[in-house]
Amino acid sequence: MKYMEKKRIFLAVNLPEEIKREISQEQGEIDNLFPEELNQDLIRWTKQDNVHITLLFLGNLKEEDISRLKEIAEETAEHHGRFSLKLNKIDYGPPGAMPPRMIWLEVEKSQALKELAEEIKRKTLKVGILKKNDPRPFSPHMTLARIRTWQWRRIEPEERPIIKRTVGHKFSVQSIEIMESKLKRGGAEYKILESFNLK
């Protein structure tokens, strides 16, 4: 039997280049708050080009499932209009986690974004591309960095920087993308397989 290569797939909203540059500047300012001697081992920052909002993570898919996913994404995009999103604040995440696992940028609670994500989830579950329903509510965010918890514990509690900051960036969501994630030693690399314009 011929080996069927699979790809690690998710659906996402990508950002305009100017917003990515602004977020990258925020990352640099936050980076300077941490102890220099720990910084390299403590935090792995998301590259500027990789910052995105995940709509649905699907994991390893065969080509036939990716083809069906393209049909679902195209059909969904055709009856969802473009909309604006506001980026609210940067903080440790997930909320309440201690030690924190990441630094993330919270996205405003948008009904349009929620409906888009829920429709894709519902359709992929129905056809069996998404194998298991995650009961947790959709929580839109962008991962700006991942934190190594064993290094975090080396920082005295009173020396752990407060990074909470309001950003207020706005942009127009004009498309959704099927993305491939390739895991590399230096972190994941993302590639757009196909983009679908909202109406």
Count of helix runs: 5
Low-pLDDT parts are none
The CATH class is identified as Alpha Beta
Strand pairing plus helix content: what structural class? alpha+beta
Distance between the termini: 42 Å
| Domain count | 1
**Helical proportion?**
25-40%
Query: Globular, elongated, flat, extended or rod-shaped: what is the shape?
Result: globular
| CATH topology title | Cyclic Phosphodiesterase, Chain: A
What would you report as the Rg, rounded to the nearest angstrom? 18 Å
The total strand number stands at 10
Which CATH-level-2 architecture? Answer: Alpha-Beta Complex
List keywords for this structure.
single chain, 199 residues, alpha+beta, 6-stranded antiparallel beta sheet, globular
Secondary-structure map with pairings?
Blueprint (H helix, E strand, L loop, with lengths): L6 E8 L2 H15 L4 H7 E3 L6 E10 L1 H16 L4 E11 L8 E6 L3 H17 L13 E7 L1 H4 L12 E2 L3 E4 L1 E10 L2 E11 L2
Antiparallel strand pairs: 1-3, 1-9, 2-6, 4-5, 4-7, 4-8, 5-6, 9-10
Helix pairs in contact: 3-4
Structure overview:
With 199 residues, this protein is an alpha+beta fold. The chain has a single domain (7-197), classed as Alpha-Beta Complex (Cyclic Phosphodiesterase, Chain: A). Helix content is 30%, strand content 36%. It is built from 5 helices and 10 strands. The protein has helices spanning 17-31, 36-42, 63-78, 111-127, 149-152, and strands spanning 7-14, 43-45, 52-61, 83-93, 102-107, 141-147, 165-166, 170-173, 175-184, 187-197. Strands 2, 4, 5, 6, 7 and 8 form a 6-stranded antiparallel sheet that branches. The chain has a 4-stranded antiparallel sheet with strand order 3-1-9-10, with helices on one face. Strand 4 (83-93) and strand 5 form a beta hairpin. Helix 3 (63-78) runs antiparallel to helix 4 (111-127). The longest helix has 17 residues, at 111-127. The protein is globular. The model has no long low-confidence stretch (mean pLDDT 91).
